[in-house]
Amino acid sequence: MDRNCVFLTIALFQSLRSATKDDVQRAMAATGEEDESGELTFTSNYGNHGPGAGTVQFRFGSSNLVTAIDASVVGEGTMQDLRFLWDLNDVGCSDFPDSQTRCNQQ
After folding, report:
1. Per-residue pLDDT tens for 3-41?
2. Which residues are registered as beta bridge partners of 41?
3. Rounded to 5 degrees, what are φ and ψ at 85?
4. pLDDT one-digit tens code per residue, 35-82
5. Cβ contact 27:9 at 8 Å
6. 54-60 and 3-4 as β-strands: parallel, antiparallel, unpaired?
7. Could you tell me which of 64, 7, 56, 2 has the C-alpha nearest to residue 38?
8. Residue 13, burial from CB neighbour count under 10 angstroms (0-12, 13-18, 19+)
9. Cα dihedral value 45, 51, 55, 60, nearest 10
């Protein structure tokens, strides 16, 4: 099961950097859809697809810890989704309010 009603926030994503697969599944309240590479995808229908809903993928390294997060979340009153990208080897970017490094330059 990859669908849930978890409110997708920058705080949630930040807390799951370098988390275990079990920690991610527990936080996302679902097992996720796993592809052949072991990446897990979750879809949140929070607020009936309103702000805080979206899709997030977690990539895991050889030690079974998160090495990358790629999320697209419905923003409050925005025309485009908020992105959150993080990679173990990179600072990443975020379109969430108060983020210093934007993914979608406007």
Report:
1. 788 999 999 999 999 999 999 999 999 999 999 988 999
2. 33, 57
3. -125, 130
4. 998 899 999 998 777 888 999 999 999 889 999 999 999 988 766 789
5. no
6. unpaired
7. 64
8. buried
9. -110
Asked if 21 and 62 count as a contact pair (C-beta separation under 8 A), the reply is no
Cα–Cα nearest to 33, from 79, 1, 65, 75: 1
**92 falls in which pLDDT band (50, 70, 90)?**
confident
User: Is the alpha carbon torsion for 65, 7, 71, 13 positive or negative?
Assistant: negative
Rounded CA separation 69/92 (Å): 9
Report domain extents, the chain.
Answer: 3-94
3-state secondary structure of 21: helix
What is residue 1's predicted lDDT score, i.e. its pLDDT?
Answer: 64
**Tokens matching residue 95:** 């379109």
Rg (CA), the chain: 13
